[in-house]
Amino acid sequence: MKLDELKKKLYKPEAEFEKRLEIPKSFQIEQEREKKASEEWQKIEKKQLSPKQKKRLLIGGILVIAVFLIVAGFMIWQGFTSFDKDKVEVKIKGPERIVGGEEVQFTVEYKNKTRLALENIQLIVHYPENSIVNGEQKSVETINLPRLNIEEENKVELPVRIVGLKEETKKVWVELIYQPFNLSSKYTNKVEFSTMIVSVPLVLDFDLPERLVDNQSFNFSLRYLNQADVSFNDLQIRIEYPDGFSFESAQPSPIKEDKTWPIFNLISNEQGKIFIRGSIHGEKGTTKSFKAQLGILKDDQFISYTETVSGVSISSSPLLISQTVNNSTEYIAQVGEKLTYLIDYQNTTDIGIKNVIITSQLNGKALDLSSLELGKGSFNGSNQIITWNASNLSDLEYLGPGQQGQIAFSVNIKNPLPVNNYTDKNFTVENKVRIDSSEKPLSLAGIDIAGESQSITKITSQLTIQAQAYYYDDLITNSGPIPPKVGQTTTYTIKWRLVNSSNDLSQVKVEASLPPHVKWNNKISPINTNLKYNSQTGKVIWTVDDLPAATGVLLPVKEIAFQISITPSLANLDSLVELIGQSQVSGQDNFVELKLTSKDSLIDTGLPDDLNVGDGTGTVVE
Questions:
Q1: Which of 218, 307, 351, 543 has a 20 to 30 A CA-CA distance from 398?
Q2: Quick one: pLDDT at residue 14?
Q3: Can you list the residues of the chain whose pLDDT is less than 50?
Q4: What is the pLDDT of residue 384?
Q5: Which of 211, 467, 214 is nearest to 316 (CA)?
Q6: Domains of the chain, with CATH numbers?
Q7: pTM score of the predicted model
């Protein structure tokens, strides 16, 4: 129906309308539920609570409020008493670049931004090793600090001298230990700071020649200086020499191994010098480096404050000389041997050198100078020097640029060596050759043109063994027929005798083999000797170990005796019977560091060393 028509009906008397639409059933059900619920609530509201129910309800409400208040109070209390160590600020400040040994200052700042005061505060400072704090060497310092209230801050100043090498990084770190008020726990905050040593006020400086020649003796010095504003006590200077350097002397004298000098008190701006003399050996073109360190000795360990390194180059001597002994530069000789020396010389420059002189100085008690063969040289017996110059070798009148030559001589070693007392041991033959000129060219002024070469020839000891057999012996009594008879047993005494001339020996051992027809009787003199027999191999081994020099010369012969026996068969009739095979001794020469050996021939029933047994009585008879 349209709106206009509806209005006409509404305002028209006796107007009739269409039947109203009914509410859907689903809405009717919902209305019934709401009505029922409303009726229930009306009943409850009308119903009165009993006094007991009201009391329970009141107690429950009070408990709920109490729990709420407790929880809220705990939360508030926890907010006031909880502790955050990160709110304790600790900082360390200091110079990032320092001069070693000079006093510097580090500052530790700390602030309490927590809600509790801090008590029992300690600051533990860890300095770099060997630092000096208040004139005392220490690496850890503990400082007790006062109470720090809320929002309060404080600082600690730390003066220290840090020592070390240039461009070395050093670290200072601290621990702030504290206890919050009314709390039993202790907390620790750590912080560190790094600094670099940019310079060291202790100075070392070598004064070395730029160039040296092989085997040249020379002088050099080492200057030391304290540029700091403070004194240094109990310092030491140590010098490390290069390979090939031979120390000769120093002023002042060193205290240990020719390389350590004490500097007891080095005051501010004080300096000093050490003067050293020595010789250098090295190949042409090599550089020899000298290193010096200045520091302290702590707990038997040297700690360096500063160091310096300087080098010298090795060049050929203008006059070069070298030598060999029996075609070797490190020859080991034997008693009675002939030594042939070859001496090579050369002018290594492009300048001629006049009036060259070559000398060779021999030294050693083992030399048999009567056997000396000189060639063109001249020998002076009073100083044992052989000389070659223009008078006996014309090539030395003028040695042209690059010119070279060779001379030779020979000499024998004595046999036997002159062992007359217990100090006569470890014999050597030394020969020092030198080439120089009496007219040094002006262009070579300031340069040592002389050349030198030294040779040391060690002589081995003379180790010998004597193997002997006896029937009539004062150490062990023998029995059986002499001459030996077929089918009958005869015993013999075997003796080993050792002689050692001039060097101490070690690991000395003697051994030989018994033939199968020889029986070991297990009789030994002296009885406590380390002598062993192996029945499987037939070997007899005597372990001597150490054998001193002059054994059998000044000391008694080293000797051992043992008994064996034979029972000849018809196969041995009318012949000599072998008693022991070839004997051999070996040992280590401790001086020349070589193994020595010596042998003696086998022994039979002929018994050449038993003077009480006649010739021909060693042949087996029936």
A1: 218
A2: 54
A3: 17, 19-21, 26-27, 41, 44-45
A4: 95
A5: 214
A6: 86-199 (2.60.40.10), 202-315 (2.60.40.10), 319-459 (2.60.40.1530), 463-604 (2.60.40.1170)
A7: 0.55
